[in-house]
Design goal:
- The complex is a heterodimer.
- By secondary structure, chain A is mainly alpha-helical.
- Chain A is built from 33 helices and no strands.
- In chain A, helix 22 crosses helix 24 and helix 30 runs antiparallel to helix 31.
- Chain A is flat and about 90 Å long.
- Chain A starts with 8 loop residues before the first helix and ends with a helix.
- A five-stranded mixed sheet of chain B has the order 20-21-22-23-28, with no helix packed on it. Chain B has a four-stranded antiparallel sheet with strand order 1-31-30-29, with no helix packed on it. In chain B, strands 2-3-4-5 form a four-stranded antiparallel sheet, with no helix packed on it.
- The two termini of chain B are about 20 Å apart.
- Chain B is mainly beta.
- In chain B, about 5% of the residues lie in helices and about 35% in strands.
- Chain B is built from four helices and 31 strands.
């Protein structure tokens, strides 16, 4: 056993714990692998540490995951790019383990290292590694190999490039669906590195095979490839090769495939150009908006704005808008909800006239939807509405919707609307707010559900921030303070909480004159919970108010509370006193 | 099955009835030994290659067996199979390992006890030599990985552990394999990390006195680790789990719902079938079993307590409440009795290997269905027709609700299912076959074999020659040898080896293996 100098203990422990029984300690050591490497020096890192890690690869997945991640940034510790090769063997083993997240991380790290490696090293080490993985006995290695081709390919000499393309096409026909899925997922990345001449031949034939795979899960991923490939091809090639495929997919038997198309279609519009978009993609999209399966309509409805932005307004009004109208009364609430969350984005595309004429009625009907999520989604995008049509037109329909949501049976709905109140207030302006919403804000402070009261207290604070202390003095503070006399202690507690939130916004003067007396008064409450909350609030007020007020008012009150019969009250009062001592010391 | 159309009626000679022989027994009872409830086997499953067999029991344990007779050939087994001449050996298995998959639990919200009993086991794709399987009890599905792990011996630490431990008041509780290093002053090393900031400078050549621990591994041991737990998705008891051919998803079915999972995601599942009526009083039918098609990833079948099998296409819609195909046999007129509906309930369905046929088991029969023909079963096999007069007794003692499993041979030419008195039956399912064997789960399986050959009874349908209802060799005379049938010894679970003529079946706590 070696004798270790005192300053080296920490690092010695770290190294020993690479093999500790406790997984947390092993994880910790792996996370500090760079420190260990620096302590060993570059040469020993290459000759000892890296082989050591390669051999000890049957550890728990958490440890392997951390190892895969650390090795990705390890080039500086092995002596720079010219030694990057030594990092490949441990990552090669990690990219064939059974756990997907470890493999993915190892592939990510291999890509990161490969991107920095010298060309010669790529040819001598990296490409053979890719080939080994692609020929792996277990599917796990083959799955990983698919994600490495785009790094290996650009540096490969011509013959090797041909071989790599052949290997990739074999992977796309692998027996295991997992491998084909991985090949389909990575096809776009690989295709981006392949020369244009091969793109049209080799890659397109690979792509066509994948689009005809009998596994839905593979075809799904081929859809994703459509957009990526489309962007690589010349528009006319895209029209002749990709367009028929995507139009076919949009009528696939499997709703999952159509769902993917609905999500991706808008990305392809740019690749094919305006004319094919009009003649083929718009009809395909309209079909998807009217699909039998609600999930597909949800995906299509969610992309309606993005799609319209690409089209010219006439097309949008002529083809898309009628579908949008239908969707606003769709039988599935989720479809309406998806539509509600994006529909306002259509307004700038359509222009003011079409918006008021066509979009506004849809918008208003969604605002009256029986399903709260739909209404909430509309309200959450209120700023967009305001920009286009102004609030006057809306306020008549908006208010009933807000009031109804504010009184919804489900507290989560009430919570959601409270969170939008400051946004609404800023959009609607002081006048409207005073008339209509002020009362609601006070009502929430007396809600039966704690989360609502808590959110309401926060809301009061945010309103004070929005409209300023003066307005708050008139419209919030008196009403809030009034509620401190509520017979139920839980409501009194909410008010104390609101006061502690309001005080920093209102400033020292108002705090001393209006808020503090109420708190001091509450220290005489008969409920101990109120009393120790008073202590907590007082503690939070100490930094806000003047030192003299602390001495004259707050400390005496706290001292009294610190002699309370209740142990919790004494605890929090003492804590507050200590913090006031600290404030005094520092000043 | 020749798998051809009806037109192709080339007279294929039905295979000869098999001569079954005893191969092995695990957990055999000695005379008079009481069976412990927890030891009773509740699930049996071969993996896809047939090299492994798993059983689950009521005590929540999963036991794995591995095939031994192929190991000597190493990797050349495939080649030998291709040679297509019989190897003079039959599959033999040995105990591999076991682990506790499920523990008894209590659902405090619903005041329900959750048994640890393993309802189903399904094997997943093998990777890197590690075995993966899914096991489920009534509520929770677990994903297990069973792998050889090296037992490591670690030496050559930087810190002299023996000396350090002596200084420390807290003795290291772990064993000597890897002692927790303590600093000489007795402090805990974790603290010292704070001083190990990145600014700490090391000499460019590194510190020569530091060394990496040496790891020596001499032997390996099998370790089962639970990788994922798929819980809280079923309000009712899970009766089936089934892997999809896409290798990434599986389904779990309870009485009223079928959920679709991704193997990698345990906190989310999608409901794909929901037969729960708005009002539970309108409930007339429950799901009894469900299975994915062996190769079409979008197709799955499920059976119901009313005796129907529904085939659904996952492509059609997200919630597959409408089936693509419905298979049920119209009730023959005039046969209706109090028990008709109870005995019509299907307890198990299995797809054949090629995915064209579905085998179903109801209380009295095995039925083979062609998925291209939904007018009725291709064949019906009577399993224990002699019990029909006794249905009343069976109802009284609840035996009528026993859930027998069924299985097909790898080549699809034979089907098998269990019965009472530890009997099980093997039928030839190819057209024209009259094979109907009764075997007993004991060391002498043919003891009960009845010599009278079975005859196909009259065809139900004149045009479809293959629709043959075969009455087995039953007559009340079967138990004329004086044995009264024992309803407590029932053979519910059995599995056919995927490529060999070999059956594993469970009789209480014993696993019997037979070959032919």
């Amino acid at each position: 056993m070696a004798m270790i100098d005192e300053p080296l203990y920490p690092i010695a422990v770290l190294i020993d714990e690479l093999k500790n029984e406790d997984i947390q300690l092993r994880l910790n050591s792996i996370r500090r692998l760079s420190t260990i490497a620096r302590a060993l020096g570059e040469e020993r890192t290459r000759k000892e540490l890296i082989p050591f890690l390669s051999e000890n690869n049957d550890d728990d997945d958490e440890v392997l995951l951390a190892m895969a991640e650390e090795l990705g940034v390890f080039i500086p510790y092995v002596g720079g790019v010219e030694h990057a090769n030594v990092l490949l063997p441990p990552l090669e083993t990690l990219s064939s383990v059974e756990e997907t997240c470890v493999r993915d991380k190892a592939v990510e790290s291999l890509c990161r290292i490969g991107a920095q490696m010298r060309e010669q090293d790529l040819v001598e080490c990296f490409i053979p590694l890719v080939k080994r993985l692609a020929a792996g006995e277990w599917f796990t290695a083959r799955v990983s190999s698919c994600g490495l081709f785009h790094i290996a390919y650009p540096s490969a000499p011509e013959t090797l490039k041909t071989e790599l393309r052949t290997i990739y096409s074999q992977l796309c026909q692998d027996d295991m669906p997992m491998v084909r899925r991985s090949a389909a997922t990575n096809l776009g990345k690989f295709a981006a590195t392949v020369e244009a001449s091969h793109l049209k031949t080799d890659i397109m034939s690979i792509f066509e095979d994948l689009t005809q795979d009998d596994q839905d899960s593979v075809r799904l991923l081929a859809v994703e490839g459509c957009a990526a490939l489309g962007k690589l091809l010349e528009p006319q090639d895209c029209v002749s090769h990709i367009l028929p495929v995507i139009v076919n997919f949009s009528q696939d038997k499997s709703w999952r495939v159509r769902y993917m198309v609905a999500n991706q279609l808008y990305e392809l519009c740019e690749a094919v150009g305006p004319e094919p978009t009009r003649s083929d993609l718009v009809p395909a999209y309209v079909r998807l908006l009217r699909d039998n399966e609600a999930e597909v309509r949800i995906a299509a409805a969610g992309k309606v704005t993005k799609f319209c932005r690409i089209l010219n307004p006439e097309l949008a009004i002529q083809h898309i808008l009628p579908c949008v109208k239908e969707l606003s009364t769709d039988s599935s609430q989720h479809v309406r909800s998806a539509l509600a969350s994006v529909i306002m984005g259509m307004a700038p595309v359509l222009g003011k006239d079409a918006t008021i004429e066509q979009l506004l009625p849809i918008f208003l009907s969604l605002l009256k939807d029986e399903f709260p999520d739909v209404r909430l989604n509309i309200i959450s995008k209120l700023d967009q509405v305001n920009q286009v049509i102004g609030i006057d037109l809306l306020s008549q329909s908006l208010l009933p919707a807000i009031v109804e949501l504010a009184e919804d049976r489900h507290w989560r709905v009430r919570l959601a609307i409270i969170e939008y109140i400051p946004l609404l207030a800023s959009q609607l302006g002081v006048g409207f707010f005073d008339d209509k919403l002020g009362a609601l804000c006070m009502q929430w402070l007396k809600d039966k559900v704690y989360s609502i009261r808590d959110a309401a207290a926060n809301n009061v604070k945010r309103l004070a921030e929005e409209f300023g202390p003066e307005w708050a003095m008139q419209h919030i503070i008196p009403q809030v303070l009034d509620m401190i006399n509520n017979p139920h202690y839980l409501y009194r507690m909410t008010i104390l909480h609101a006061i502690s939130l309001l005080a920093p916004v209102m400033g020292p003067e108002i705090t001393c004159s209006k808020l503090l007396p109420v708190v001091i008064n509450a220290s005489k409450d008969r409920v101990p919970n109120i009393k120790f909350n008073v202590a907590k609030v007082l503690q939070s007020l100490i930094p806000i108010v003047d030192q003299s007020v602390v001495e004259k008012t707050i400390r005496p009150c706290l001292i009294e509370l610190s002699e309370d019969p209740d142990v919790d009250v004494r605890f929090f009062a003492t804590q507050a006193l200590q913090s006031s001592d600290q404030v005094m010391m520092s000043t | 099955m020749n798998g051809g159309d009806e037109v192709v009626t080339a007279p294929v000679e039905p295979p000869q009835p098999l001569e079954w022989k005893f191969s092995q027994v695990f957990g055999e009872r000695t005379a008079g030994e009481e069976v412990q409830e927890v030891d009773i086997i509740s699930a049996i499953e071969f993996d896809k290659t047939g090299d492994h067999l798993a059983t689950g029991d009521r005590g929540g344990r999963v036991v794995l067996f591995e095939r031994t007779d192929t190991k000597d050939h190493g990797g050349s087994r495939r080649d030998l199979e291709r040679l297509d001449y019989p190897i003079g050996r039959h599959p033999e298995f040995r105990y591999k390992t076991e682990f506790q998959s499920h523990e008894p639990e209590f659902d405090y919200l619903k005041s329900l006890e959750i048994e640890e009993k393993i309802n189903k086991i399904r094997w997943c794709q093998t990777a890197n030599g590690a075995l993966f399987l899914l096991s489920t009890n009534d509520k929770t599905i677990k994903f297990w990985k069973v792998q050889e792990k090296k037992i490591k011996k670690i030496s050559d630490m930087n810190l002299d552990s023996s000396k350090a431990v002596g200084n420390c008041s807290v003795a290291s509780s772990s064993n000597s394999l890897s002692p927790r290093p303590y600093l000489a002053n007795g402090g805990c090393p974790d603290r010292s990390y704070s001083s190990l900031s990145n600014e700490l400078s090391f000499p460019p050549g590194g510190i020569p006195s530091l060394r990496l621990p040496m790891v020596a591994s001499h032997e390996t041991s099998l370790v089962a680790r639970c990788r994922r737990v798929y819980a809280h998705a079923h309000d009712y008891h899970i009766n089936s789990i089934s892997n999809n051919s896409d290798g990434e998803t599986f389904i779990s079915a309870d009485d009223l719902r079928i959920n679709l999972w991704n193997l990698e995601i345990s906190n989310q599942s999608f409901n794909i079938v929901d037969v729960k009526p708005a009002n539970m009083e309108d409930l007339t039918e429950v799901i009894t079993s469900a299975e994915f098609h062996p190769s079409h990833c979008n197709m799955l079948g499920y059976s119901s307590s009313k005796g129907s099998i529904r085939l659904i296409d996952l492509r059609q819609s997200a919630l597959c409440d409408s089936h693509a195909k419905l298979f049920e046999e119209p009730e023959p007129p005039g046969t209706r009795s109090f028990f008709t509906e109870i005995i019509a309930s299907i307890s198990d369905i299995k797809f054949g290997k090629d995915g064209r046929y579905i085998l179903s088991r109801d209380y009295m029969t095995l039925k083979l269905w062609d998925i291209n023909m939904d007018s009725g079963p291709v064949s019906t096999f009577q399993v224990h027709e002699y019990l029909r007069p006794k249905l009343c007794d069976l109802y009284e003692n609840d035996s009528i609700f026993d859930k027998f499993e069924c299985c097909l041979s790898g080549d699809g030419l034979r089907v098998a299912t269990g019965s009472y008195s530890n009997l099980f039956r093997v039928f030839g399912s190819s057209p024209g076959s009259t094979e109907a064997t009764t075997l007993e789960a004991s060391k002498n399986p043919m003891r009960r074999q009845v010599q009278t050959p079975s005859r196909p009874s009259r065809s139900l349908s004149s045009s479809l020659t293959r629709v043959v209802r075969r009455a087995g060799a039953e007559s009340p005379g079967v138990d004329a040898n004086g044995n009264s049938f024992d309803f407590t010894t029932k053979l519910l679970h059995l599995a056919w080896h995927p490529s060999e003529k070999s059956i594993a079946c469970a009789a209480a706590n014993s696993l019997y293996m037979y070959y032919a």
